[in-house]
Design goal:
Elements: E1 2-9, H1 15-30, E2 35-43, E3 48-55, H2 58-65, H3 68-77, E4 86-91
Antiparallel strand pairs: 1-3, 1-4, 2-3
Helix pairs in contact: 1-3
């Protein structure tokens, strides 16, 4: 699994706009092969927002980035942005779950 993080800025106190943008672009992205989910991370105080999308493969992220729908998403978001979004792609590694009440031993130096 891979994550694509899109970091962008909006004027302060526009979390509702960020939520509306996420709700608008999510159905567009959902049409893309390999798309899993979109999570919006919001910091109203700083005006910094992140859209975290999860994808099945790296190739599907690259396919989306070349698709017309990527340009449609950019067109929807661009009137609200105060800077060019930063985009990063990361491989996701899920850590094993720790049972409730279990204590973790510190790593040896």
């Amino acid at each position: 699994m891979f994550a694509r993080v899109q970091r962008f800025n909006l004027p302060q106190n526009l979390a509702e706009v960020a939520r509306d943008l996420a709700a608008t672009v999510e159905p567009i992205m959902r049409r893309q092969p390999g798309f899993i989910s979109l999570t919006a991370l919001l910091d109203e105080t700083s005006g910094e927002y992140l859209f975290l999308t999860l994808w099945e493969t790296l190739e599907e992220i690259h396919r989306f980035e070349r698709a017309a729908d990527e340009w449609r998403v950019r067109d929807i978001m661009s009137p609200y942005l105060t800077s060019v979004p930063e985009i990063g792609v990361y491989q996701v590694h899920n850590l094993p779950a720790v049972a409730a009440g279990t204590t973790l031993e510190p790593l040896a130096p």
